[in-house]
Amino acid sequence: MNRRLVTILVVALVSALVCTALVIHLVNNRMSAVKQPLSMTTRVVAANKDIKLGNILTADNLTTIEVGTVPAGAFLAKDQSKVINRGVISDLYQNEPIIESRLAALGSGGGLAATIPPGMRACAVKVDDVVNVSGFVTPGMRVDVLVSGVPPGAQNTNQGTVAKTLLQNIRVLSTGTDIEKDATGKAKQVQVVNLLVTPEQAESLSLTSNLSIRLVLRNPLDTNVAPVSGTTTGSIFSGMTPEPEKPHTVVKSAPAPAYSIEVDNGSTATQEKFASAEGHK
Fold first, then answer.
1. What angle do CA 264, 268, 272 make, to 5 degrees?
2. Phi-psi label, residue 164: left if phi above 0, alpha if psi -120 to 50, beta otherwise
3. Which pLDDT score is estimated for 276?
4. Are 174 and 137 in contact (CB under 8 A)?
């Protein structure tokens, strides 16, 4: 066989082998890259259904899921026992990883009390039906508390009803209904909103039971406390007070002058008085 032809065949075979090796290496690298994320997933504890605020977690409402990145504060599957019997302080949703900040401290139980941070208080405030039906206030929102009424000792003044911003940037813990008796003694439902306040703010709210209370929604990112002064009914309608009527002057006429005539009738004398002729003009 021609040496030149043999050389060409050998070079071609070697090139084919090198190319095949390179292709196999690239395919293996690509397959490794695809399988790598699956091998790096981590199994964490999650809710197997929607769980409302205040509930206590049990093994029946927990599951485990695989995640690529473990959220901060999440519980690994092996630590599921650390989640059981802890209260939920924020609504959880199905297949959502459970994290430490969404749970109450171990042993604090469930319900509304478990959602109250140390040093704070939950204070119930009655609101009208319109607030509840329209979904105006829901847990987690931030509100200002306005009160209106007639201040003590102001009944004899012209300022009328006064509206004042009592509290600002207050978090709503929960909303619901309560049972209360009306003037006739019959039970009725009233709408109640629980606000998260300090002990001092709770004292202020306790003095407003006889006043009209209104909750004003605010942007949760707006945490500034505005310097708001109270507003009176008199200030709203200032400039609209009607002018007092001018007094009518009554001119009294002077009494008409009178004259008298004496009439002698024998031994009898009589005197008659008549108005002056000028008085009838």
1. 55
2. beta
3. 59
4. no
Residue range 42-114 forms a domain whose CATH class is alpha beta
d(CA 29, CA 89): 47
Reading the block at residue 18, the tokens are 């090198």
**Chain segment 169-212, per-residue pLDDT in tens:** 999 888 776 555 556 666 556 678 889 999 999 999 988 878 88
The pTM assigned to this predicted structure is 0.54
Distance CA 221, CA 69 (A): 28
- Alpha carbons 247 and 161: distance in angstroms, whole number: 31
For the chain, the residue count is 281
- Please report the beta strands in the chain, taking only residues with DSSP state E, as ranges in sequence order: 42-47, 62-67, 121-127, 142-149, 162-181, 187-197, 212-218, 231-232, 258-265, 268-275
CA atoms within 13 Å, Cβ hemisphere of 137: 28
Q: Where are the domains of the chain?
A: 42-114, 119-234
Alpha-carbon gap, residue 235 to 184, rounded angstroms: 38
